[in-house]
Structure formats: structure tokens, C-alpha cells
# Entry
Amino acid sequence: MDITASLRQVKGVGEKTEQLFQKLGVYTVGDILLHFPRTYEEFPQIGSVTEDMQGKSMAFVGRLKTPALTRKGKRMEVTIATAFCDETPVECVWFRMPYLSKQLVVSEPIVFYGVLQQEGRKYKMEQPMCMSVEKYQALRQSFQPVYPLTKGLNNATVRKVLHTIFEDMDPEEDMLLPANICARERFPSYWIALQMLHFPNNFDELILGRRRLVYQEFFYYILHGFLQEAKEGSVTNPWHFSDTQRVEEVVAGLPFTLTKGQMETLHQIQKDLRGPWVTQRLIQGDVGSGKTIVAFLAMLDAIDNGYQAAIMAPTEVLARQHYESFLSLCETFSLPYPVVCLTGSMSAKERREAYACIADNSQVFIVGTHALIQDKVNYQKLALVITDEQHRFGVKQRERLAQKGGQPHMLVMSATPIPRTLAMILYNNMQISTIKDMPADRLPIKTCVIKENLRKKAYEMIAGQIKKGHQAYIICPLVEASDKTEAENVTDYVEKLRCYFEANVSVGMLHGKMPSAQKNEIMNAFETGEISILVSTTVVEVGVNIPNATVIMIENANRFGLAQLHQLRGRVGRGKWQSYCILMDQGNGEKITERLEVMNRSNDGFYIAGEDLRLRGPGDFFGIRQSGDLNFRIADIIGDADVLQQASVDVHRFLEDEANLDHYPQIKAHMARFEEENRLVL
# Structure
């Protein structure tokens, strides 16, 4: 089956199912093959129905004494059956599954698997899986994938579609990796590795399949970087910089003192700008280390020398914040340069005005999103381009900017704590600057991990901060309720908070599915204080700066990776007041709590990343992936460091033979697809 084929061409996928998959960004056969499980489910041993099992997932063998009944309600059909575990009755209820009434045979032993509920003295299960004892025992021998879902789509449907696709795939050996590497590492073929990831028969298969795919992702990333570096070569610096006093005057006039790391990084950038070659530099600094002011000063250096400078942000919310921050700095220091913002949601008139400002001013601060590489943007002497946070800025975008504005120097700002040895592999053609120290006026954020029984106290603490005139974030993992995922969602949570807090406490909602204009409107209301509590998904994770927000409460914190929790925690603590982070641990295991307690012990992103790796287990392959700039589909920079280093060595050896790409036409073709599909920071 062609991986570019529409999902609709898969047997059993109708229009409604196709639309549900599209909500997850799954449009083609290739998309669903790379729609990896977020975790795996292991079925428990068959047990007895007791009070101790209330609220837990369990399996029991039950027999029906009377036939199941299906009733037609106003909105749906409801099937009800009473299964007896020994002599203990359990009422089982299914919605929209009338066919079960014929499949459940009286007196036959049937395994029922689901969450056991207790209402008074009666036991109940909603939507339990039911099957023969033999089939259940077979399921217990394998890992069952649990996928990211949307409302109306369940795991069974995703599994069925994938099984259909794999039946049509050719599992023979591929040539997407050099044969000697596959032999040395004992890698399965690409298609078998995908099967091992979706439907592993055992833990060893899961490890091997995942390692093959992680290696392949790193191999192509590094190969792409080396080929591009060889293609471009060293470019003579066409820009002529002289030392001016304006940057030093602004540094001296700031209401805070730059840290040693900030000053060293600024001087390194200035040396690059005045050097013989066009340079690329990675600025790595922890959350809150002050990378943005360094970026502004670097841009000012370029602009004061007669050139344009641009900063590209990953979201419109962050682009607008940069714009307003730069405007304020220009006004404070009476800088004679305009600041222009360009984003996709601007009106046609606003875009025309932005285009004109960029075309007519040789010295201008340019702030925007991906809209900065549109054909209609005409740059003059664009000497410096900065990409901020998680933005993927690739070869094609850089080439387009180079064609428009010359050969700009490139800066990439990253808040992901990557050890220097790994960063040198990932950014093989970049210089690296690290800002390790934090601004002196930053108070460490106080963090606590709590269970459900302390929720009321958490709300009381938030209410206390609001009475002091401050604001709060509450982060939920979901936009809307899911049929299969038990986690807080933004839509329902907002209504719950509005009922809990007083009427004068304004509660707002923000998530990635909102139109850009609406997101900007909500963030503006939060910035100005019109909204006291912002209930949001992780869309606020990247760079959002609201100094008056002093508390962030993260629901289902056990569902996030520690690096992502660290990024989210960095949304507070940006003002002069003490700030707080409340992590709601809704997990069952002690290990989850231990992992979250790492956040209590440290505000150091590098330490947190290391502890995250140490504490990982078999179920953590997908459920707690790191958040980071490169956004690999499956690979994790920290967790897969050994694979990354081996892939780097192998790429060097592979490129020693210039004919290798011709010997591997599939690798050459895959490289072309890789470049097209991945907008990579290089």
C-alpha cells in the first residue's frame, strides 16, 4: 500500500472515521504509521470483585443468569447485563453497542475487563471489554497500544486500521539504512520495526523496533546536516560592522544587570557579526535565563550598523509579545528605529503596511512568525535572523531569506537543556553559546506535588494570589473530553472554575484549536489583567511572558515529561513577586510521584533532564517524551543519547565513500522526502 495514499483508501475507513483522524493530523497511510502509541496497556490477571478493586481497572470471569437487554433511549441504545463473579453481581452497561446482547451467552464463562465502580452496595462497569477466557489470556501475553485520541475515536478503531494496513505491507528488508549497519545492529526492516512499535509481542520486540526507528531518525537528521553544510560551504561575510556606543548605552541603562552568561553570549555574537564568515550560532539557556534581551541587543547591533534584523517566533502569541517588548525598549531608550510585526492572522491592510515598512526601511526590527518568508516580503540588507524557542527553521526557509536579504547570520535560541556533547552533534555546523546563570532578581519558584485530597487548598491558594492582584495559569492536557482518556480538559474545566470562584474572578480559556485572532485576544486580556485565571493547554509552554502571573497549576502532571513541566513552570516567576507551581499528581504508581518530586528539588533544567532519564521505565517511551526544539517524531535527545552518538559516527563513515548515496538510491530518495517533510533547525 502506498504510504502517500489517503486514509480513506484503507478498507473499513469511511468519511466519518476519516474526519476524526484528520482532527489528529492523520491524513494518509504514512501519517497513521507514524501516529505512535502514547503508552502501552498490560492486561491484569483475572481476579475477584471486591471493595478493594473499586475505582481500578480489573478483569473477572462472570456468567449471565439472564439474557442481556437492549433499550432504546432518546439519544442512544443502552445494553445492560448482570454478570455474576461467583455469587457477586456486577451490572455491566454499554452505550451504542446493541449487538452485544446476542454475543453474551447465558451461563458461558466470559471475561469482563474495565473499571469497577461501586454505587451503594452494588458493583457496576461501564463499557467493559468482554471476551472468552482463552482470548483474554492470549491478550495478556502482549502489549496493547494506547493512542492519542480525539472525541469519537477509540483505540479499537486505530488498531483495526493499522492491522489492515500492515496486512498489505511488504515486510521484506528495505534499503533505508546501509546494509552493514542493519547487520551490525541486527535491525529489523523498516516495516517490521513499525509493526513492533504498534503491536509488540513482548518487551524485547518493543525495544528493538523503537531503536531501529530512533536510529533512522537520527541518521537522516545528521546526514541531512552534513550534506547541507557541504553544499553551502563557508560563505564570506558580506556585512561590515563597526563598534557603536548604542548597544553599550542600552546595556548600561537597563533596570537590571546582565548576567555573566548574557554578556559573554552577546560578545560572542558581536564577534561573529564582525568576523570573516557568515555564521550560525545556537544560544542555549534555561527557562528564564534572559535569552530575549540578548536577542534584542544583537538585533540592535545589526540595525545600528545600517542593516535589518528579524526574529521569527513559533506562535503568534509569542511574536506579538516580542513586538510589544521591542516597542517598549525602543521608546524607553529613544531608539530611532521602527519595529514591525508580521503574522498570518493579520488583515490584508495590516500586512500591506508591514510589507511597506520592511521594504522602505533599511534599519528596522522585524518580528513575526513563518509569515516572514512569504513571497511578498522584500527585505533590504537583512544581516541577522533569529529563530526563537521551538521553531523549526529549515534549509528552504533560510535559502528564501538569503535570496531576499543577502546571506544573513543565523541565531537559534533554545531553552531545551541539551548536554554540549550532544548539541555539537545535533547542530554540527553551529557555534554554541550557553547562558547558565539566572538573573539575580529572579526568586526561585516554589513547587509542590499534591494529590486530589488537597485540591481545595490549591484553589484557596490561587484565590489568595488573585486577591493580592496577581493572576494564575491552570494547564490541562486536553482541549475537550475524550471517550478513552481520563484527563482534565480545558472546555469542561473552565465551567467548573466559574462555578467555584466568585463572579468577580474572570476565567479565560486558551487552546491551539482556536483561531489566531481569538488566541491573541485572550492573551491580550490576560496581559492587561482582564482575565484572572487562564485555563490553557500547553500552547503557553513557549516563551509567554506575563510578570503578574504568580502561580501555575498543572493538572494530570504525571502525563507530562519533566522537561515540559519545567518549561511550563517557567511561565511564572517572571516578576518581582514570589511565584508558585502546583503539580496535580493523578497517577496511581509511586514511581510517578517520585518523578514529579524531582521538580521540588531543583529549578535546573539540566538536572531535571538527567533525572527524567534515570527514572524512566517501559511505559515511558511515549507518555513522557521530552519537549524540545527539534521535535523528533520518536527519538529523544537525552534518553537516546547513545543512539545519537552512534548514528553520528556512522554518518561520518558513510560519507567517506562519496559513491554511497548512488549505491543506496532509496536513501537518496528518502533524503529528498526527509528534507521536504522536516523543517529542521540546522
